[in-house]
Amino acid sequence: MICAPRGFCAGVVRAIDAVEKALALYGPPVYVRHEIVHNKYVVESLRRKGAVFVDELDEIPPTSAPVIFSAHGVPKAVPEDAGRRNFFAIDATCPLVTKVHREAEVHFRRGRHVVLVGHAGHPEVVGTMGQLPEGAISLVETVADVAAFTAPDDGGLAYVTQTTLSVDDTREIVETLKARFPAIVGPHKEDICYATTNRQEAVKRVAPQVDAMIVVGSPNSSNSQRLREVAERAGCPAARLVLRADDIDWSIFGNIRRLGLTAGASAPEVLVEEIIDAFAERYAVSVETVSTADESVFFPLPRELRGEAAE
């Protein structure tokens, strides 16, 4: 049973297209700070075309080549550093992550301390926390963190969330925040993105009906890890995160009759097809698609790569 929606979201498509368009317009190298999206197959494919991935800008020599920021967003210090070095910087941050950045800034300007619900160390969380001065934003990862959190004495409180969290976990954390701090201000529209929500809903539908679930995605992909957790909680006996067909542990999946299959928002469909083919070599396979939502979201390329601006 294949989940729909699955795989690439609009923000991932935009980020990958940005690197490919920059390569087409300017030729290699195109520098990319951090993995453009969290998928090794995608990153290696772009590397073969001439993308050069770096962890920090100080790894980039003086250059007129494009320098692209990943879909996860970056702290404000990064574009400032790029400006000082006269880099041709292109920001491929997902617009839904940018929305969270803007919310945090608005709350800060209105005198509120910001609570960020997210996972420590994730690039998106690092980027969001880096929008505000040190001490202006506090990270909570769990209900226990909320219980231990001490709000500053002055001003109000507001919260924002990472876009790729578990919908159910986040709801519990936010409810705990509201119970402790009834006046806390939240986003007008929740921060968890449409793609994360839709993919989790599809998994919830399929997971109780199958013997095992494969989530196609990289271990460092937050939304892919959440899909695996959602499948387990929804009653799937065995849920595994698999990068591609070569990584399938047939001792786990060898005796199943019904398999669920989905893909994280940064995993290309070719890897889903590869896994279906691997099962088809071993079993008589019939494919059923379970769809819970239609997606038609599209984000235009960064301005520097559009039409006349890119000429």
TrEMBL record:
Binding site for (2E)-4-hydroxy-3-methylbut-2-enyl diphosphate: 38, 72, 122, 163, 221-223, 266
EC numbers on record: 1.17.7.4
One matching Pfam family: LYTB
Source species, domain of life: Bacteria
Residues given in the record as dimethylallyl diphosphate binding sites: 38, 72, 122, 221-223, 266
This protein's pathway: Isoprenoid biosynthesis; dimethylallyl diphosphate biosynthesis; dimethylallyl diphosphate from (2E)-4-hydroxy-3-methylbutenyl diphosphate: step 1/1; Isoprenoid biosynthesis; isopentenyl diphosphate biosynthesis via DXP pathway; isopentenyl diphosphate from 1-deoxy-D-xylulose 5-phosphate: step 6/6
Signal peptide (residue range): none
InterPro entries xrefs: LytB/IspH (IPR003451)
Biological role: Catalyzes the conversion of 1-hydroxy-2-methyl-2-(E)-butenyl 4-diphosphate (HMBPP) into a mixture of isopentenyl diphosphate (IPP) and dimethylallyl diphosphate (DMAPP). Acts in the terminal step of the DOXP/MEP pathway for isoprenoid precursor biosynthesis.
NCBIfam families reported in the protein's UniProt record: ispH_lytB, PRK01045.1-2, PRK01045.1-4
Protein name, per record: 4-hydroxy-3-methylbut-2-enyl diphosphate reductase
Originating organism: Chelatococcus sambhunathii
